[in-house]
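Example 5.3 — Peroxidase
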Amino acid sequence: MALVNPLDPNHDPETRKLAEFFNETLGFCPNSVLTMQHRPAISKAFINLNKAVMANEGRVTSALKRMIAWVSSNATGCRYCQAHAIRAAERYGAEQEQLDNIWEYRTHPAFSEAERAALDFSLVASQVPNAVDAEIKARLHEHWNEGEIVEMLGVISLFGYLNRWNDSMGTSIEEGAVESGEQYLGKHGWEEGKHDGSRY
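Solution (predicted structure tokens):
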């Protein structure tokens, strides 16, 4: 059971309407949002931020944004967000070869140098202490413009919030996310962990 129980999806009508966004991205409203509804201003602000961050304004594709989210969540160890990010990457058209080899993005030929720079940025920006340096800045600017870099950091920062929220909350993971986690991440040791409801 989570630290705080998620509320019914119909608890706050405004949140429910905004949360329709997640039916496209995940196929369900995440329990994290249903928990945020205990303070509807938070759930509504979060969904609006999520929509703004995930909007495509340049060449950073929806699939790449979700892979950036996965790398960030992997760096922080949030199993819940790892599964959600890989599921959303699949739903937004990430190539099968990339999904199957996400753990090897640095060397696998399915990833371009531009994608590697973006994913490495996600890794170093998610570490504590932060490891963004002149080398990653130079690599990013080889492939991406400043607006696109802002989009990437928006994803990394959004998932920093989600990683803290879901790992601290022990948010119960949804069945669809479990399926995606097991399919793409299970061979590398992914498991539900505290999100299976048995740790609290």
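Remark. The mean pLDDT is 94.
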